[in-house]
Amino acid sequence: MSESNEKIRETVRQEYTKIAQGGSGCCGSSSPDKLAEGIGYLGEDLEVLPEGANMGLSCGNPTAIANLKPGQVVLDLGSGGGFDVFVAAKKLGSSGRSIGVDMTAEMVGKARAGIKKFTEKTGLSNVEFRLGEIEHLPAADSSVDVVISNCVINLSPDKQQVWREIARVLKPGGKACISDLALKKPIPDSILKSVAALVGCIAGAVMVDRTKEMIQKAGLNIGNITEKSINIDLMIDCQDPLYAQVKECLPEGTKIGDYVVSVDITALKD
Asked: Which end of the chain is more exposed for a tag (fewer CB within 10 A), N or C?
């Protein structure tokens, strides 16, 4: 890994450590439930969550596009406080397994602390959180039915390696269902230099065509890619700390939605 890539990784780790500790990290919705409901999570999804699992870091609902089935094994890349892992676990039932991976020890600790409360609410003991990097997943080859991720892959300085890892851990016939941000057009250098934009996935976003190339290069097939501008509007409305900083970097007369769109991506393994 290049020195610049490691610097990006360490910046992201430091900022998300602050968020996990409840400090002044540079993103996270000020209205996490409002954001979750706006992007398609149901009340029954939110009811099973331990306190603090929903940190307002979503830009989509990968558990919905995945159409999860009981008994499946699901792996969430960049699981944070465990939001999507717990939502998925309820859908998978006692015969399934919901696993989260995060590179920030404080996030993993926070998520693990919620497992007991989740079990009390649901009667399920099918959740696990692992410390690791999404470029080097702590999971065996062909061991996962569905990979999900919510606004995380753009944080990686080596997205192609992430897609290779997704392909490696998926079972034949498995799928990846990813919610993330993508570029509509190149973004100004002022945004690229913004830490807030980096941690909020904006500076790390790539064009949709580039994502398609990476998926195919990893040996996966493209399923569906759907753009959702409304999700960006909700994030701007709900994530005040992050977007207030990013807006200051924008050229006069422009808005975040001019450059970035939320996307739902499905990729399939033969």
From this structure: C
Query: What is the distance of C-alpha 208 from the center of its chain?
Result: 17
Number of neighbouring beta carbons within 10 Å of residue 120: 9
Domain presence at residue 78: yes
Q: Do residues 117 and 81 lie in contact, with contact meaning Cβ atoms separated by under 8 Å?
A: no
Q: What is the CATH number of the domain that holds 161?
A: 3.40.50.150
- DSSP type of residue 157: S
Burial 181-206 (b: 16+ CB within 10 A, else e): bbbbeebeeebeebebbbbbbbbbbb
Of the candidates 76, 31, 89, the one whose C-alpha atom is nearest the C-alpha of residue 57 is 31
Q: How confident is the prediction for the chain on average, in pLDDT? A: 86
Least Cα distance to 39 among 230, 208, 259 occurs for: 230
What is the tens place of the pLDDT at every residue in 125-156? Answer: 999 999 999 999 999 999 999 999 998 998 89
